């Protein structure tokens, strides 16, 4: 019985790792689409979101079944609870990547990001992707030390968001609509990494209790 139970827990862990990797790829494709005003990278973002949603449903169904049938305790119960939270955060990450891609689609063929903001958004995309892949590693290894680093890593995104706001409130020459678009995009990237940090905290709870 225990062997079957452990296999089901491993299935949950594996699905969470796949979800995280998919969300990491999605933010890269979305950033590529945004900066290049290119339709091609936007398409896999939408497919990735469908995959993440499907995996979340599978994770939730499996965890609810485990809670009902196995009545796990201690670390197994922590995995079940943390898994539900992590799956929700990853789904939100995927949805935010979709928002980034759709921001480009609304303005296409015009560019959403003007030249003076391109470097900020390039770095935002890099930070978001890097943290998401680090989170994937955290989920693979269940490494609480690595998970704790994500909170500090997120400071870089916060600094970039402040730089974006300084640009928007400075000598901005692209109109109100352009400013709103960039403010929303900045918020999408900031929230993306906030969800990464949340996942790291759930893993810390899972490992340490």
Q: Can you characterise this structure?
A:
By secondary structure, the protein is mostly helical. It has one domain: Phosphate transport system protein phou homolog 2, domain 2 (Methane Monooxygenase Hydroxylase, Chain G, domain 1). The chain is 88% helix and 0% strand. It has 6 helices and no strands. The chain has helices spanning 2-36, 42-69, 74-107, 115-141, 144-168, 175-208. It is elongated and about 65 Å long. 39% of the residues are buried.
C-alpha-based Rg, rounded: 19 Å
Structural class by helix and strand composition: mainly alpha
**CATH top level label:** Mainly Alpha
Number of strands: 0
State the major sheet.
none
The amount of helix comes to: over 70%
Q: What is the name of the CATH superfamily?
A: Phosphate transport system protein phou homolog 2, domain 2
The CATH topology is what?
Methane Monooxygenase Hydroxylase, Chain G, domain 1
Q: Termini separation (Å)?
A: 25 Å
Q: Spans of 5+ residues with little confidence (pLDDT < 50)? A: none
Helix/strand layout:
Elements: H1 2-36, H2 42-69, H3 74-107, H4 115-141, H5 144-168, H6 175-208
What attributes characterize this protein structure?
209 residues; mainly alpha; Methane Monooxygenase Hydroxylase, Chain G, domain 1; 6 helices
Short summary:
With 209 residues, the chain is an all-alpha fold.
